[in-house]
């Protein structure tokens, strides 16, 4: 694996030092960093590339869950299991990870296929979230738990200052459903459109409230698109409420 990756990226004029600076960690084995940045679409379109970031994502997801749970346990001694679970979901949701990834310009460092590039996949939240977890997995293989703690402290710790005890904070669809049921006695409606090839499909969802106000969202699957549409509609409903107040 490492030989093929080093050959693949040996001509790069500017290695991903900026990304390492954002992470607060410098890799000893750069092949691991490079593997974490390979989207499956790139491997699909380049027969000479034998790896992508999915295995590292699997590992990073487990590491992130453990580090997040440990920090929440130490910091919120008054929370029961349910409360801690709610807070953890806010920190590790695809939306939260995608925002962190956007903040460090992770999309600019990804190796994606041409089809994925054309469809905007480089900046799609789901892919960014996966790559962020892959980076954490790569850090674990490269430097163990201590390395992951450094990355976690740099990228994830600031999010602890914005945690919300609201049960629906990490579940826009649930919050929108509850709001619409309370106000109009009926849930929101969703309209979905799919574009692009099967391996790089893009979904666009429109959420419609009882009074006709709409929100839109895009994603790599139906759930992600509808979640973003619900969040957009909630923002619009809140703004509309403030205007009328």
Helix-and-strand structural type: mainly alpha
CATH superfamily of the largest domain: Ribonuclease III domain
The CATH architecture term of the largest domain is Orthogonal Bundle
Helix count equals 11
Determine the CATH topology of the largest domain: Ribonuclease iii, N-terminal Endonuclease Domain, Chain A
Distance between the termini: 60 Å
Sheet with most strands: strand arrangement: 1-2-3
**Unreliable runs, pLDDT <50, ≥5 residues?**
6-14
Q: Taking Cα atoms only, what radius of gyration do you get, to the nearest Å? A: 20 Å
- What percentage of residues falls in helices of 4 or more residues? 55-70%
Number of strands: 3
User: How many domains?
Assistant: 2
Order of helices and strands: HHHHHHHHHHEEEH
Note down, in words, how this protein is organized.
The chain is mainly α and 245 residues long. The protein has two domains: 161 residues, Ribonuclease iii, N-terminal Endonuclease Domain, Chain A; 73 residues, Double Stranded RNA Binding Domain (2-Layer Sandwich). Helix content is 59%, strand content 8%. The protein contains eleven helices and three strands. It has a three-stranded antiparallel β-sheet. A hairpin with a 5-residue loop joins strand 2 and strand 3. Helix 1 packs across helix 3, helix 5 crosses helix 6 and helix 5 crosses helix 9. The longest helix has 31 residues.
């Amino acid at each position: 694996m490492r030989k093929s990756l080093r050959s693949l990226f040996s001509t790069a004029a500017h290695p991903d030092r900026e990304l390492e600076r954002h992470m607060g960690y410098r890799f000893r084995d750069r092949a691991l960093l490079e593997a974490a940045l390979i989207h499956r679409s790139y491997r699909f379109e380049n027969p000479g590339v034998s790896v992508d970031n999915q295995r590292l994502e699997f590992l990073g997801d487990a590491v992130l869950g453990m580090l997040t749970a440990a920090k929440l346990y130490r910091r919120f001694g008054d929370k029961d299991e349910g409360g801690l679970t709610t807070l953890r979901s806010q920190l590790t949701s695809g939306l939260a990870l995608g925002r962190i990834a956007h903040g460090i310009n992770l999309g600019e460092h990804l190796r994606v296929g041409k089809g994925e590039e054309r469809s905007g996949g480089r900046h799609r939240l789901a892919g960014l979230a996966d790559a962020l977890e892959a980076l954490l997995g790569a850090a674990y293989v490269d430097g163990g738990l201590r390395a992951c703690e450094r990355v976690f402290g740099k990228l994830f710790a600031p999010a602890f200052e914005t945690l919300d005890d609201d049960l629906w904070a990490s579940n826009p669809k649930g919050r929108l459903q509850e709001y619409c049921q309370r106000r109009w006695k009926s849930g929101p409606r969703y309209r979905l459109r799919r574009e692009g090839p099967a391996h790089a499909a893009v979904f666009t969802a429109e959420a419609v409230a009882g009074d006709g106000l709409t929100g839109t969202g895009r994603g790599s699957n139906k759930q992600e698109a509808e979640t973003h549409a619900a969040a957009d509609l909630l923002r619009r409903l809140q703004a509309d409420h403030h205007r009328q107040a």
